[in-house]
């Protein structure tokens, strides 16, 4: 499981409701032997998101065997080399971003993407960093990903601890770096004519304080309620142990599915026809399978969830919000954010469960007094999914547990509001 810890130690974990058996470390994931030097101190909520989703933006990077389409995609064109993976031969092309500086010394980095991987094709996402003094880190692998699971089992690659950096599931943790380069290696089976491609890559960097600070005032979405469908993760308890076993482990794909249902972008029935008959909301089982990380063994990999959502909704990425007022801007635009919280017994009034080391849910609106209306998938049934949480409690638990970790999923009919540096 991936438990959440205070944002001073960095990021919350998007797994649900299960206790960890390891020590909690900077970065928020359960690991042994974490380097103490990764703990940092800051007083500002510094978050930056870099997007690559147009021909001009892709062209700012280095192309090796890829081409840029008029529709804004970066696509496989010709191999620059071949390599072996899982006993099979693949042609490989590569795209590398320019050096990107967020304007502060970042301690965490999370990439996300929207990609097509037809046939036996897949992508590998890598990153390296540079200090203010010019020292370079090695490239670390953040993910090997394919939309399906027939040929390649998508997975993260935790560890790789060197150069003052460490991969923790989907998050690259550093002692403080000035800039980074993203690299995407695009693979297709040798002899295949498949054209894997990306239409979006984002990189979120952050440096966060230990505490949430004063509660934000109600903002532009006061009195707004979005009509997001209600699904319960608990209705899937015991389903498909090979993909996490449902129930307590499926908060992330259940929340992602609620947002897709809101946009009327759930997968077609043929996609989840493999789900055993009689399963409630079978598209949730399908989402769990399509987001499952075979590396850490769970469905809570943040960019795996947004990559799945992007295939269906159009655009999706992982970022951090600085407070609930930013979440209100999204809700006002008709975009329900999925957020990561954690809480001890008695900390979240009205919750359907007593505590959680890391839990995802959907913000669907705000009352006029600023209270947060959510669809909480931890409810036992659909009828209990919609909850109202006190603003001060919820904001603190979200910011201090995960640093404001958020999935932003939207379709063409719901464009993002004016940019604020983190979307």
Kindly summarize this structure in a few lines.
Helices cover 14% and strands 31% of the residues.
Structure description:
This protein is of the alpha+beta class. The protein has two domains: 1-45 and 209-423, Cysteine proteinases (Cathepsin B, Chain A), CATH 3.90.70; 47-207, Jelly Rolls (Sandwich). It is 14% helix and 31% strand. The chain has six helices and 20 strands. The chain has helices at 55-59, 251-262, 282-291, 302-313, 324-332, 391-402; strands at 46-52, 62-64, 66-68, 74-76, 81-85, 88-96, 106-116, 121-130, 140-145, 159-162, 165-168, 171-177, 179-189, 197-207, 315-320, 338-343, 356-366, 372-375, 386-389, 405-410. The radius of gyration is 20 Å and the shape is globular. The chain starts with 45 loop residues before the first strand and ends in a 13-residue tail after the last strand. Mean pLDDT is 92; it is low at 5-15 and 17-40.
Q: What topology emerges from the helices and strands here?
A:
Blueprint: E1 46-52, H1 55-59, E2 62-64, E3 66-68, E4 74-76, E5 81-85, E6 88-96, E7 106-116, E8 121-130, E9 140-145, E10 159-162, E11 165-168, E12 171-177, E13 179-189, E14 197-207, H2 251-262, H3 282-291, H4 302-313, E15 315-320, H5 324-332, E16 338-343, E17 356-366, E18 372-375, E19 386-389, H6 391-402, E20 405-410
Antiparallel strand pairs: 1-14, 2-6, 3-4, 4-14, 5-6, 6-13, 7-12, 7-14, 8-9, 8-13, 10-11, 11-12, 15-20, 16-17, 16-20, 17-18, 18-19
Helix pairs in contact: 2-3, 2-4
